Amino acid sequence: MTAPRTPLQPDSSTSSATVGVPPRGTPLYQSHLDAGAKIVDFAGWSMPIHYGSQLKEHEIVRADAGMFDVSHMVVLDITGGDAKSWLQGILANDVAKLGYMGKALYSGLLTPEGTVIDDLIVYLAEDGYRMVVNAGTREKDLAWLRKTSEGREVILTVRDDLAMLAVQGPNAIDKVCSVKPQWADAIRALKVFQGVAMGEWFVARTGYTGEDGLEIMIPAAEAPAFFSQLIAAGVAPCGLGARDTLRLEAGMNLYGHDMDETISPLQAGMGWTIAWEPASRDFIGRAALEAEKAAGVAMKQVGLVLEGRGVLREGMRVVVAGAGEGVITSGTFSPTLKHSIAIARVPAATGSTAEVDLRGTLTPVRVVKLPFVRLGKKVFD
């Protein structure tokens, strides 16, 4: 079987470093080489695309437990007397909803025009907040955060001293607990989208695969030993290729593909992340989003299913009879479902069917609500 092509392959526009600047290695770079990884340049980082079989890595996360090095992502600690009010002004979601320690919130970071600078997670911490943003948007995110915090009592600390591992799959939590038995009770007590500090470590029940699991932030010097312990416990190292097909099956956006600074969250399936109440909270981009809603949101995000031959790919034209045209923003062959799937942005009037231009032939596809797969099971009708 041919491995699915993903937006994370080395010839992708997402995988471009500054010309002449060699890619950086994470604290686990040598561990990846020792485990047999194929390394590619992704967003200026030397990262594993797979360890021999992207398909097998995808399947093991759905059936057992796999781990991904996500140390290239940017972790920031946010402190200071104005931290809460500042975050309430720059995020579409409202950190006031973080009702207990370690609780996580997913949000868009928006331009004044109401388009997406980045998507991120922010946690409530003992002395402020912890934020995790994407690697490919590192410089523009940090510049925007520093600009908007000027003159405020806000301290931003970039935690480049941390590595980060995502351990995902139905057996992920059990296997992490077998490696860290002293933390097992605390880890098992975590609610979904909640984290807990274990000294300098931070363990969160979050992920990007549609499976249960953990994202663990680790002091960089301790990461290789933990990686080896997880392998010994039966956790398979997995690359960015499987991470992409897993997230696509789970209906999760990839920045630079399913949303960017040309797209509003209302058109990118992120409307649920906007906290409209209280009406007095004037976050950046709010006025533009309110105007878009009042005018009628022109496009929406949907899932597409092609159960016959062919593979849906990013950039393919979607034709909706009587409603207009849209575009596939992410597409691949689904290893779990054994046929092609895609995330698409289509006219708001789109119903249950559409056509995709496959090499010049308009081919019928089903339009479904995302996600395609949750906890290893098909979820659409």
Q: Output the structural class.
A: alpha+beta
Q: What is the topology, as strand order, of the major beta sheet?
A: 11-12-13-10-4-14
**Strand-residue proportion:** 25-35%
Instruction: Name the CATH homologous superfamily of the largest domain.
Output: Probable tRNA modification gtpase trme, domain 1
Shape: globular
Q: What is the total tally of β strands?
A: 22
CATH topology of the largest domain: Gyrase A, domain 2
Instruction: Work out the radius of gyration.
Output: 20 Å
- SS summary, helix count: 9
Amount of helix: 10-25%
Low-confidence stretches: 1-18
Q: Label the CATH architecture of the largest domain.
A: 2-Layer Sandwich
Integer count of domains: 2
The overall pLDDT, averaged over residues, is: 94
Explained architecture:
The protein is an alpha+beta fold and 381 residues long. The chain has 2 domains: 1-295, Gyrase A, domain 2 (2-Layer Sandwich), CATH 3.30.1360.120; 298-378, Elongation Factor Tu (Ef-tu), domain 3 (Beta Barrel), CATH 2.40.30. 20% of the residues lie in helices and 33% in strands. The protein is built from 9 helices and 22 strands. The strands form 5 sheets. It has a 6-stranded mixed beta sheet, with helices on both faces. A 6-stranded antiparallel β-barrel has the order 15-18-17-16-19-20. A hairpin with a 2-residue loop joins strand 21 and strand 22. Helix 2 packs across helix 8 (240-249). Residues 1-18 have low confidence and may be disordered.
